[in-house]
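Morning - iron/sulfur cluster inputs below, output right after.
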Amino acid sequence: MPTLAETYTEARLAELNARLEGQSPQDILSWAFAAFGERVTLACSFGGVSGMALLDMSVKLNPAVRVFYLDTDVLFPETYELEKRTAERYGIQPIAFRPLITLHEQAQKHGDALWSSDPDACCAIRKVEPNKRALEGMDAWISGLRRDQSETRSTVRPLDWDKKFGLVKVSPLASWADKDVWRYIMANDVPYNPLHDRGYPSIGCTHCTRAVKEGEDPRAGRWAGTDKDECGLHTEP
Ligand code: SF4
């Protein structure tokens, strides 16, 4: 007997995408809440405006929405502060998923500064594995992926089959541009990470994020100096 998620074959996804493409993010979210009920969850990193816009829209449509984030133990103080501020403002309790090993245990096992020596291995421990646990028992998850964010994200559709985690991935902002998200944030007075105002368009862990200079690619501050541009949550297995 297939799970609900497994009934979303490529043919069905293609048909649904033809219908959902061009609809508003709120319409796509409403569709997802109706289709998956309690078995859809929203990922919000508190480090990007897309996630904050989606959180605002989601809570307004479905106050009981399950929100989670990955606490790698090395997020910026501003990110932890935003999570607390958001929880108070919306009356929600975002669920933190943390790595199975502490930073100390990681250093003992893999050496100091694994984020420098092998960032893929570090992301696998501190992001990908916790994300897998966050999605257990779910049929779908909602992410803030947008086609305009990078070359690797240029084919994102409102609905995709997530091969890595084995469920449907909903991307309501797939067709939005950065300016659309900011317009929504300002118009709705949505809280956002103050580091955005200090030259950080994309915010992850402290060790792997720097401010970008005028004219640089918005994601140039992530894993700067390496060829890595994704943490592994949104790449093929
Ligand atoms: S972003 Fe950096 S510190 Fe964070 S999990 Fe990945 S490699 Fe480790």
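Note: The chain has eight helices and six strands.

O.
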